[in-house]
Specification:
Blueprint: E1 3-6, E2 13-16, E3 22-26, H1 29-35, E4 39-44, E5 49-52, E6 57-63, E7 66-71, E8 77-82, E9 92-95, E10 106-111, E11 127-128, H2 131-138
Parallel strand pairs: 3-10, 10-11
Antiparallel strand pairs: 1-2, 2-5, 3-4, 4-9, 6-7, 7-8, 8-9
The structure holds zinc ion (2 copies).
The site of one zinc ion has 9 residues, from loops.
Length: 141
């Protein structure tokens, strides 16, 4: 099974070859600004991704290790992608809201939990990581 998705205006569409079982939320300040809310991502390896209409995307290098892509016309937050070398290089995190049908994909993780505003939280029991824990795991040396 594969997953399809795309932006609000339809200029950019994509197909993911795998059927992702898990999604995860990121509460970091960059994801909150970029998505305009809570960014929920769906991980995909580079060779499992096919994008149509990629010339309608604009990418923004939000840090030294990742870029974020959005549609030039409608502004949909399509994906976060790791640009730094290493084991995660090229990995995409598609915006779960841009997937046409999430099916049974379950939210299993939350990153930067210490940056989450106090006024909301998810009911799902997830593996939560603080800023220090995330940095220890992902940040380049
Ligand atoms: Zn669009
Ligand atoms: Zn984030």
């Amino acid at each position: 099974m594969s997953k399809t998705g795309g932006c609000l205006c339809g200029a950019v569409t994509y197909t993911l070859k795998d059927e992702p079982a898990e999604i995860g939320a990121c509460h970091c300040n960059m994801c909150r600004k970029w998505s305009g809310g809570i960014y929920i991502g769906l991980e995909a390896k580079p060779d499992a991704v096919e994008i149509k209409g990629a010339d309608n995307l604009t990418t923004y290098a939000s840090s030294e290790w990742a870029e974020r892509a959005f549609c030039k016309t409608c502004g949909s937050s399509l994906y976060y992608r790791v640009t730094a070398p290493g084991p995660h290089a090229g990995t995409y995190h598609f915006g779960a809201g841009t997937v046409d049908d999430l099916g049974d994909a379950k939210m299993t993780g939350e990153l930067f939990i210490d940056n989450k505003p106090k006024g909301y939280s998810f009911a799902e029991k997830t593996h939560q990581m603080t800023t220090d824990e995330v940095m220890a795991l992902f940040a380049p040396e």
